Amino acid sequence: xxxxxxxxxxxxxxxxxxxxxxxxxxxxxxxxxxxxxxxxxxxxxxxxxxxxxxxxxxxxxxxxxxxxxxxxxxxxxxxxxxxxxxxxxxxxxxxxx
Length: 97
Known about the structure:
Strand content: under 5%
Number of strands: 0
Largest sheet: none
Low-confidence stretches: none
């Protein structure tokens, strides 16, 4: 959690000089978050402690890592993350087992 808070601080530090870039990057994150929210809403009841499958929970953390990657790249990420990887993981989480 501290790393994510540091990433937020770095984003805010950079924002005044990079408004357009921040807006573009946030649009990417927002589209992925919307797809994630749709997937959670469509989930079958009774999956996991909060009703979310482990695969969807992993996608949620991938989204957080993407934020670090886009807004505070100097902090590094816990694992390789990209829009394409998130979409692949989301599709896999939604496919019937």
